[in-house]
Each structure stands twice: as structure tokens, then as C-alpha cells.
């Protein structure tokens, strides 16, 4: 039996996720592997480095810093979230990501990115927590139009949510049969087809494989939600999700709002702690 943690993305909705993972770490709940997409990877990697409170701390401290996220950054560099600040200055200098602890912890941590040439999901296992891994997390979090493609080796990548928003089937495929899934939308949520798709066709016309994925993304996402719900009802999966829409901005600057959503995650995780322990021990 392999125990897995699957972490959805969702920009600052993932402050909910931060509250959940901090609570699980405090409770001493371990997994054999974890996988995150987009902000789920950027925040979730702290599970492997065992840095309780880090996500809340640096987001609150730098929420108003335009280097973290701003339209100025987008206009200047092509990245809504500043690449150098988020994936070098912050983890290396300002709120140091503990690469030694990351490497020591036996849990495998994966992130998902999308190959812009074929539109396929690429699942990458992070090894060191250093520069190469941070580039994969950046790729996983780089949304088309709002971020430049991230070049790694001879390939270029965008956000993992384009091709696999909730990579539960990948984790099951590689042998994880006891999975806890952290979602950032409530039970009733289903994604609607984007009304901006015609505009995306104009902007992203040189990336037909990406456009093809974006066109079916709502259906693909909802299909995975239905799959997760079916297994949850059968007792074959455990899901932690917000009890209601989180209603937090993509580039939320208000520390009180960040703390509010974080505390919802703490509360939901505490409510589910015994159920999680029982599920993982069965």
C-alpha cells in the first residue's frame, strides 16, 4: 500500500491548501508521495521540506510587493508572478526553502507541467529542491498569456492545469492506492467553458496543442471531479475541500484575506484529521 497526497492548484485559493498541509504536518501525518499542480506544487513542496507556516509567512509578508505579483511585472517581463523574485530571491535569500530537509525526507514529490508543443502533461519528480526543481515548479505555475513559457532542456512548458488539473489518475497509475486529495473548490463546483476561448485562439494561435487542451478543459476537469466524488463515496479516497467558495483574488494583497482562507484550511483539516488517520491505516 502506497499513501499519496494529491494537491490541486488555484492561485491564492491554495492558501486553503497551506492551512490543510500545515495541519497535517503538525499532526504527524506522513505520505509515501505527493503531487501538486501550479500553486499546489509551489505551496505543497513545503510538505517535503517540513516547513510548517512558511507559505502563510512569506505570502503575508510580501503580498503587497509588486515583485511577487503585479501587472507591472507582467508588462515588464511577461510574468504576472515575478519569475526571479518567486523562484530565486524568495526561496534562496528571503524566506529560505530548506533544501537539506527536502532531500532528507523520503517522501517523493512530483509536479505537473504541460508541454506546449504537444499539449501533454509531464510529471516531474523533484529531487533537490534547488534551481532545477524550482524551474519545474515555475513551469507548473505559468499560465498562458499571464506567463512566458518556461524552457527546460530542449522543451518549453506551461501550467500543469492545462493538461491535468488534479493528477489523481497518474498517481493511481504509478501505484498510489490510498490517496488524500486537497481541492480548492467546494463540492458543488463544476467548471464552465471559458467565454474567453475565442480571444485565446487569437493570442495562442501558434500553440494549437495547448488550445486543443484549453477547449476541452472544463469537461476534462469536471470528469475528474466526478471520478473523485465516486471514489470518495465508495470510501476509496479521502477528499478535503472548502465548505463554500473561497472568494479570494488571484493576486490577493490583503493579509487578512490570506489568513482568512488559510484558517478555513486549518479548520477543515482538523475536522478531518481522525478520518484521515483511520483511512490511511486501514
TrEMBL record:
Active site per database record: 38, 159
Motif (DGA/G): 159-161
Motif GXSXG, residue numbers: 36-40
Superkingdom of this protein's organism: Bacteria
GO molecular-function terms, A-Z: hydrolase activity
Residues spanning the signal sequence: none
GO BP terms in the entry: lipid catabolic process
PNPLA domain ranges (all copies): 5-172
Keywords annotated in UniProt: Hydrolase, Lipid degradation, Lipid metabolism
Parts of the chain that traverse the membrane: none
Record's protein name: PNPLA domain-containing protein
Lineage, broadest ranks: Bacteria, Bacillati, Bacillota, Bacilli, Lactobacillales
Amino acid at each position: 500500500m502506497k499513501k499519496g497526497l494529491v494537491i490541486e492548484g488555484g492561485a491564492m485559493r491554495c492558501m486553503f491548501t497551506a492551512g490543510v498541509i500545515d495541519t497535517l504536518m503538525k499532526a504527524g501525518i506522513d505520505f509515501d508521495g505527493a503531487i501538486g499542480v501550479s500553486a499546489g506544487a509551489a505551496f505543497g513542496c513545503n510538505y517535503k521540506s517540513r516547513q510548517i507556516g512558511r507559505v502563510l509567512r512569506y505570502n503575508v509578508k510580501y503580498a503587497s510587493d509588486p515583485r511577487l505579483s503585479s501587472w507591472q511585472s507582467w508588462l515588464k517581463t511577461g510574468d504576472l508572478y515575478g519569475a526571479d523574485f518567486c523562484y530565486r530571491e524568495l526561496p534562496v535569500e528571503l524566506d529560505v526553502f530548506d533544501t537539506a530537509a527536502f532531500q532528507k525526507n523520503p517522501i517523493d514529490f512530483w509536479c505537473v507541467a504541460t508541454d506546449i508543443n504537444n499539449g501533454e502533461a509531464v510529471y516531474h519528480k523533484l529531487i533537490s529542491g534547488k534551481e532545477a526543481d524550482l524551474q519545474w515548479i515555475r513551469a507548473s505555475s505559468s499560465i498562458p498569456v499571464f506567463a512566458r513559457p518556461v524552457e527546460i532542456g530542449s522543451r518549453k512548458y506551461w501550467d500543469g492545469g492545462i493538461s491535468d488539473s488534479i493528477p489523481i489518475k497518474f498517481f493511481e497509475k504509478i501505484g498510489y492506492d490510498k490517496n488524500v486529495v486537497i481541492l480548492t473548490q467546494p463540492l458543488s463546483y463544476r467548471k464552465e467553458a471559458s467565454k474567453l476561448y475565442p480571444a485565446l485562439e487569437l493570442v495562442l494561435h501558434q500553440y494549437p496543442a495547448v488550445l486543443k487542451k484549453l477547449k476541452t478543459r472544463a469537461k476534462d476537469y469536471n470528469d475528474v471531479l466526478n471520478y473523485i466524488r465516486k471514489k470518495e463515496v465508495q470510501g476509496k479516497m479521502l477528499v478535503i475541500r472548502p465548505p463554500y467558495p473561497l472568494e479570494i483574488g488571484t493576486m490577493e494583497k490583503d493579509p487578512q484575506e490570506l489568513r482568512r482562507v488559510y484558517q478555513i484550511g486549518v479548520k477543515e483539516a482538523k475536522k478531518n484529521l481522525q478520518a484521515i488517520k483511520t483511512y490511511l491505516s486501514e
